[in-house]
Amino acid sequence: MAFTFTGGIHPKEHKNTKNKKIERLTAPKTVSIPLSQHIGAPCKATVKPGDTVTKGQVIGIVQDGLGVPVHSSISGTVKQIITKRMPDDRAIESIVIENDFNDTLCPDIKPCETPLKDLTSDEIIERIRLAGISGMGGATFPTYAKISSAINKVDTMIINCCECEPYICANHRLMLEDPKSIIGGATILLKALGLRTCSIAVENNKMDAVAALKNEIGSSNMFNVCIMETKYPQGDERQIIYALKNIEVPAGKLPADVGCIVFNAETCSAVYKAFAYGMPLIERILTVDGDCIAKPKNVLAPIGASYLDLIEFCGGLRANVKKLVNGGPMMGAAQWDIEGSVTKGTSAVLVMSAKETPAYTADGVCIRCGTCVRACPMHLYPSYLAMFARNDAFEECKNYDVMSCVECGSCTYGCPGGVPIVQLIRSAKVRVRAMK
Amino acid sequence: MDNQNIDKKTADRLPELLTVSASPHIRSSVTTSSIMLTVIIAMLPALLWSIYLYGIRALLVVAVSTIASVASEFLYQKLMKQKVTVNDLSAVVTGILVGFNLSPLIPLWIAAVGSVFAIVIVKQLFGGIGKNFLNPALAARVFLFIAFSKPMSTFAEPLSNISLFKSNADVIASATPMASLKAGTVPSDINIIQSFIGQTSGCIGEISCLLLLCGGLVMLVRRVITWHIPISFIGTVALLSYLFAPRTADAASFMMFSIFSGGLFLGAIFMATDYATCPMTSSGKLIYGVGCGAITVFIRFFAGFNEGVSFAILIMNLLVWYIDKLTRPRPFGKIKSKKGETSK
Fold first, then answer.
1. DSSP bridge pairs for A55
2. How far is B72 from A381, CA to CA, in rounded Å?
3. Residue B157 CA, distance from chain mean position
4. A60, A89, B66, B254: least CB-packed within 10 angstroms?
């Protein structure tokens, strides 16, 4: 019996690259590394144009506030520091580095000498912080801060290998090709938290990955692989906790408040590499797919590589592009800059034509079919929230728990009338926050 | 694009501007028109059966009501300078349902009037699809029943030759099964199986419970409706008819005839499940179905009308938004609130 939650949808999986081995991206000519890739304060550059940098060298640190350092993903010369504006008018600085193709490793990079059993929690946390690791499932929360605030508070650790979004096969391939890094990273995290066992949640459309993990785990009873029903959004940490433990994280609270902590599979892998090789987070696996891509692949790309680099690596385009999405098709963000960068949180780059991604229908009409109500994993009334939002009834939105919405998009996916429910909810949330 | 040497083929396929719109970026293939098409297909078996029983006139009535329905929606929207939405097929469904609620002998102009009432007054004047507060076809049926009571109560003998042009005085049916039930007896001229398959007289769409059930299963499988309303509606009528069967009749037979007559199957499967006028939660649907069933039996037993289905559904339609409020789901991560109740 697979674990599951109530609500959710079954979109077409499009797991086109699940049998494609991860390929390392051909070294790009330049990388453009944003100084803000995590939740918290942005980094300040510690290098200037003209400086030579090595692979893995620190190029940005957070002076005060929550954050992790940023490292160079290639060796070369700093060309310039550019500023790009976001739609909400934030200015994001990026460091553009020109590749010298020597792949020179930073001399500071050394594996951790101390055996795991002799490391203290603080030492583990500090090394994770210095490695620049933040949540790689897309949330990008600094991992060291997540661990520190959870020590002595949590008794359940869960590794999220669900990967419920369509197209994305990055974690799937990681489980098949390098399960040692996931289990190794999880072992380190368990030590940091002072826990003995952890669960690994995998959806049942990845049974080969389950076998690979179990093979790696062997006879150890530290790890318990849990099979989840394949359903979107099973990968949402609240739904994993509910499916495995039948506990609902209270509205407005975090998993740590119910004694749970959830880590993404690739975050574990990054933690392992930080200890086994001393490597900071400078590259990640992402799926490049979408009907415009000639040869979809799972790519191991350096942070800062551009979308164009990825497109060319994957055989170029075979259809006219309408949209480029950073992330999955349900919750990812449409991009406006074809030369935008791969960041620590980029799990996929999807290049879609008009056939694959339908037009946004601002004038969609609700026919009260109830599909959205059945789909909502947070058990809200999406159709009513959309109606209230459209009519500026923000007090009603608040009373109908609009702030509990996780913006998963399950409601909008199935709406026959084409109502842009999630976007209406997002705009309502902005007004409700301003009301408080 | 500054220093990249892009492959020409790639450059050709890149647009001037990338489209940036809100997530989600994919959609399911279900649209309003695909749902309506499933409903139309589900209604076809019952329609074909009526044509078999009553000849081409049955088809003509439904055709007129459907064309009038689509035409009135088109003309209204054009006149009001609104976006014309007839291709979502909801007017077609309403038109067919209006026809289904009429006798095959009904004068065609009355059928057209019914459709115009349903679309213009009940649906469009209140805001169009999704915003009507009463089921349009059912409201039209009641309007016609009150305005043209004689033609609306004149039914034909099944398998009689209904002429399109000459007078049809000789094919008029004797009392429908519902009239016998009202009098407190089980109908004598047909048996339960015939009543279920549909070898009686009545309105075009309400006769064959078997074929309406098949249509209901089609909609269930295609996830257009859920089981809650039909089962709770029909189940409540069955239970109450059995419990309160008149002493002059055998309770079990009375119950069976009660559920197979009076347009209950048509009402419970196709009319009460109309999205705009039924609750959105599962528990809400059950309350609604039970309410419809109870009011149906009440009207059948105590009121002057032979059937109660139409009025029952219309009365429950008025309570739908309140039922939605009452059965609001408990949000994930919140404890049961004082006013809402747990659903799902």
1. A105
2. 33
3. 24
4. A89
The residue type of A57 is Q
Residues of B whose CB is below 8 A from A358 = 26-27
Query: Which of residues 311 through 340 in chain B touch A, CB cutoff 8 A?
Result: 324, 328-334
Q: Which amino acid is at A304?
A: G
**B25 neighbourhood in chain A, CB within 8 Å:** 323, 325, 329-330, 332, 334, 350, 352, 357
Strand A52-53 relative to strand A76-85, pairing: antiparallel
Q: Kindly calculate the radius of gyration of chain A based on its CA atoms and give it in whole angstroms.
A: 21
* Omega within 30 of 0 (cis) for the link into A233: yes
Distance CA B27, CA A299 (A): 26
Report d(CA A276, CA A113) in Å as an integer. 9
Contact B153, A390 (CB under 8 A): no
Distance of CA B224 to the CA centre of its chain: 13
Length of chain A: 436
User: Helix, strand or coil for residue B315?
Assistant: helix
Nearest beta carbon to residue A334 from set B6, B25, B129: B25
Q: Which residues of A touch B275 (CB under 8 A)?
A: 367-370
**pLDDT tens for chain A, residues 1 to 436:** 789 999 999 999 999 999 999 999 999 999 999 999 998 899 999 999 999 999 999 999 998 889 999 999 999 999 999 998 877 778 889 999 999 999 999 999 999 999 998 999 999 999 999 999 999 998 899 999 999 999 999 999 999 999 999 999 999 999 999 999 999 999 999 999 999 999 999 999 999 999 999 999 999 999 999 999 999 999 999 999 999 999 999 998 999 999 999 999 999 999 999 999 999 999 999 999 999 999 999 999 999 999 999 999 999 999 999 999 999 999 999 999 999 999 999 999 999 999 999 999 998 999 999 999 999 999 999 999 999 999 999 999 999 999 999 999 999 999 999 999 999 999 999 999 998 6
Q: Is A342 helix (H, G, I), strand (E, B) or coil?
A: coil
DSSP secondary structure code for residue B276 in this structure: G
At residue B146, φ and ψ (nearest 5 deg) are -80, -40
Tokens 């647009």 label which residue?
A: B15
Q: Is there a contact between A227 and A213 (Cβ–Cβ < 8 Å)?
A: no
Sheet with A333-334, edge to edge strand ranges: A23-24, A297-302, A283-289, A348-352, A323-326, A333-334
Tell which of B27, B323, B338, B344 to mutate to test the A interface (max A CBs under 10 Å): B27
CB A38 within 8 A of CB A129: no
B147 is written with which tokens? Answer: 């305005």
Kindly report the pTM of this predicted structure.
0.91
Residues of A in contact with B21 (CB under 8 A): 323, 334, 359-360
d(CA A128, CA A122): 10
- Residues 6 or more apart whose CB falls under 8 angstroms from that of B145 comprise B152, B153, B310
Nearest partner of A172 among A37, A394, A347, A33, judged by Cα: A347
Q: How far is CA B245 from CA B133, B161, B240, B253, in A?
A: 33, 36, 8, 9
Strand pairing report for A156-161 and A198-203: parallel
